[in-house]
Amino acid sequence: MKIVKTIASVETHERLVVELECGVEPILSLCRVTKESDDVNVEFDLSHQGGGVVSVSFAEFVERLHAAEAELRRTYPEVTVQRRT
User: Fold this and answer.
1) Under a CB-based contact definition with an 8 Å cutoff, are residues 56 and 42 in contact?
2) How far is it, in rounded angstroms, from Cα 44 to Cα 56?
3) How many CA atoms, within 13 angstroms, populate the side-chain half-sphere of residue 4?
4) What is the helix, strand, coil percentage profile of the chain, to 5?
5) CA dihedral of 60, 58, 29, 9, whole degrees rounded to 10
6) Nearest residue to 2 via CA among 17, 23, 16
7) Each residue of 35-48: pLDDT tens digit?
8) Of 53, 52, 49, 5, whose CA–CA distance to 27 is shortest?
9) Using alpha carbons only, what angle is made at residue 45 by residues 58 and 62, rounded to the nearest 5 degrees?
10) pTM: predicted TM-score of the whole model, two decimal places
11) What residues form DSSP beta bridges with 57?
């Protein structure tokens, strides 16, 4: 498994694409998009699964990740989570 990052930037638009691949097959592709306003969204490209692009606010995405992590810690307290930076 590998993580591929691409960053593109112009004056009014910045895009960070993060893709998780297993072999040559994409598993997950997410993009952080900063538009001209202060809104930051996370887009999930599900085209490799026959879907489209789903967009949620970055703040909501982070909040849901923290909630999911808390639930996993309650369910499996013996598991240690290692974070990579």
Assistant:
1) yes
2) 9
3) 13
4) 25, 45, 30
5) 170
6) 23
7) 656 778 888 877 76
8) 49
9) 20
10) 0.58
11) 41
